[in-house]
Input
Amino acid sequence: MKLTYYGQSCFLVQVAGKKILFDPFISPNEQAKAKGVDVDSIEADYIFVSHGHGDHIADLVRIAARTGAVCVCAAEIAGWLGNQGIQNVHGMNHGGPISFPFGQARGVNAIHSSSFPDGSYAGNPMGFVFTTAEGNFYFAGDTALTMDMQLIPLWAKLDFSVLPIGGNFTMDVADAVHASDFVKCNKVVGVHYNTFPPITIDTEKAKTTFEAAGKTLLLPAIGETIEA
Output
């Protein structure tokens, strides 16, 4: 599978001929602007949204309206999208897996908060576990370390995990190492770091911390595509 990183927690995974975009926050991100990322050139067949905070949905309506992508998200976010004129939505919540043309996706627990930019309720935050013919992966969303992560190996043998590492609002690097133990996956793509001062980290130290634990931390540059 190919993964392209767009900054903060926004990335795109190409699997089974489909482009799956996550948590689109691009146009307000000065780092993405500096790298020349053009939000209007990003294509998507699906957009998965972990929760309603502005740094995860800023470009959601813009991209969904242009691409016609299916927006997969909490029922409350699906309703909000409908009010914005976006009708191609799949509302969901934590629970059993949902089948899509690319495979299956399951909503799982994330320890965080979720509200829209105006402060209104945006449903439960969540992560997602994907099982596909080309491999399996876990996007934790914004979350603290939680024992619930130990359930994930019951559902999938992961090829990689996408975990927040910036601390302050989510797990930090040390907790992400524990999370990788819980989900039994030693290949981690780090997100949700270095966008704002409260989540600034030493990236070289973060990589060394993972290496010391026998794990790999991938930190693709904004706009970079990697094999995950």
